[in-house]
Amino acid sequence: MKEFLNRALQLESLAIVGMEKNVGKTTVLNYIIEGARGRRLLGLTSIGIDGEAEDLVTGTEKPRIYVPKGTLLATAKGALASSDLTKEILDTTGIQTPMGEVIILRALSDGFIELMGPSFNSGLKLVLDKLKTLGCETILIDGALNRCATADPSVSEGILLATGAAVAADLEGVASATQHRLQLLSIEAETDNKILSVLKNGFQQGKLAFIREDGLEVTTEATALGAESIIVNSLNSGASAVIIKGVVVDRLVQQLLRHVEKPEGKTIYVEDGTKLFINNEGYSQLLRKGYRIRGLNPIRVMAVSVNPFSPLGYSLDSRSLCVELYNRVGLPIVDVVSNIGVGL
Q1: Most confident of 76-85, 148-157, 318-327
Q2: HSE of 308, CA atoms in CB hemisphere, 13 A
Q3: Domain that holds residue 240
Q4: Which of 107, 156, 278, 304 could be disulfide-bonded to 13 (CB atoms 3.0-4.6 Å)?
Q5: How far from the centroid of its chain's Cα atoms is residue 170's Cα?
Q6: CB of 80 closer than 8 Å to CB of 87
């Protein structure tokens, strides 16, 4: 497990992203925080709210975030009321949340903290820049429910994906769902410099766009949502690729599978794998039909953490789950509570 900590603390920023609630994100976060004590100056923030004593969705008790003296924190002013550490305010951000402005502070004592950071990527980038300027060597970002935005490579250098028995009731279900999420996060990045130039231009336009032989075609549509027929018609009329600023969901996948006449070699471009919200069956069918799914920016998945216990009362064999996941995805798999590490 020492190797796991070393890898985590070598990164300038690490996002911890959960497959579901109750998969052990906060437990892993606390493990890394404690492992960094005396080694690295840590910065902490979150996207949305985390660190509360009770899960706001399930009502179950959950671990709280505990930080050592000297840690730098970015959280909303209102969150400080439930934090028991002594602190010093270092800076403000101008970023507003439902619990007030996000401020930068230093912990002057060990203690518990509730984190509520920006809910959007541009705000998160600003917070990270401030923490780095103040000397943070590693910044940990705690992701909130169903928010993969923290995995965005423009925000974090790497991610840790947390999974576990809360995802499914059996080992096969957990392993399959986790493998699929990792496939989406790890889509290939475009490497052709000529195409990259067109892609960057397309994404900068902030609109749905297409690549044709004569160049970039930009539409008036902001996203692919509700524009499925436009995408189908353009691909059928000679466009070689669609550039989607925003998310790709199952509804678009079904339209592509049913109505594009010659899909072989057509490319779906997204900014990165965090923008894909499609099921395993649809994703597999797209690949079988000959579609290419590519990203502008690659995502580095550092490791996967496992929580074998479900809030519903059942549990899985952690070592078996860790081994199965490693055999499927080839990434380091850890259970920090049971001190299990596979592939480290």
Answers
A1: 318-327
A2: 20
A3: 193-295
A4: 156
A5: 24
A6: yes
